[in-house]
Structures are given as C-alpha cells and as structure tokens.
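Postdoc handover notes: sequence design on the structure in folder B. Input tokens:
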C-alpha cells in the first residue's frame, strides 16, 4: 500500500511537520509517519530517491547530506520556528507557489519565515 501511495505522491513530509496539517491532505503528499515514524534520515533520503519524492522537512541534517551525497532528492527545508496551524496555513498559502517555481530549476530550497533561498547542484 505504501508503494502505491508513493507512486502517486510528489512530496515526502518529514515527521517534524504536522501530519494533520490539511495542506498535506492530498495524494501529492505522503507523510513519513505513514511509512514508519522511526525511519532515520538516511532511510528517508533513500526512500525519496527511490520514489522520486521531494522531501519537506525542518531537519537541518538533510542539508549536510545534500552537500556530501552524490545522489540526492530535491529538498525543501523550512527554517522557521513552530507556527500555530493558522499561521502555517498563511505561510503555505503565500509561499507554496514560489517554492514550486524554485523547485523547477533548483535542488535545495531554504524556506525562511521572511525569505526563500534556492540552491542548484
């Protein structure tokens, strides 16, 4: 069942982002907790590569992996504190299209509260 979900998905949402967040409630998103909440970062990385998924995370370890690994998935690293759900909705409503546009030509996105930076490999 997970592999079918992953086939339809485009984004792998890390456990440090809310599973119950309605923005992620579509077939485009699969949450790590639906696969195995105890997966290590390396396993998440490899799962994303194997299923051609973009990782959405707040974990800083993925940037180090991006810099040191030859093969990598695309990653969006959210660099802001804990938002209330309403504020998180506002953030995604205001910034998701910008992030999607940047993902077309870049491999790693840093999404801060007030700015977004993109890195091409």
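Designed sequence:
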């Amino acid at each position: 069942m997970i592999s079918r979900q992953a086939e339809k998905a485009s984004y792998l949402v890390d456990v440090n982002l809310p599973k119950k967040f309605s923005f992620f409630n579509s077939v485009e998103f699969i949450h790590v907790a639906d696969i195995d909440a105890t997966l290590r970062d390396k396993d998440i990385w490899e799962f994303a590569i194997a299923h051609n998924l973009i990782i959405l995370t707040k974990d800083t370890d993925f940037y180090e992996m991006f810099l040191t690994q030859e093969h990598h998935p695309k990653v969006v690293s959210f660099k802001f504190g804990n938002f209330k759900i309403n504020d998180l909705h506002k953030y995604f409503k205001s910034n998701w299209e910008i992030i999607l546009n940047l993902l077309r030509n870049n491999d790693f996105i840093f999404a801060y509260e007030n700015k977004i930076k993109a890195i091409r490999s």
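Context for whoever picks this up: The first helix runs from residue 2 to 8. Don't rerun without checking with the PI first.
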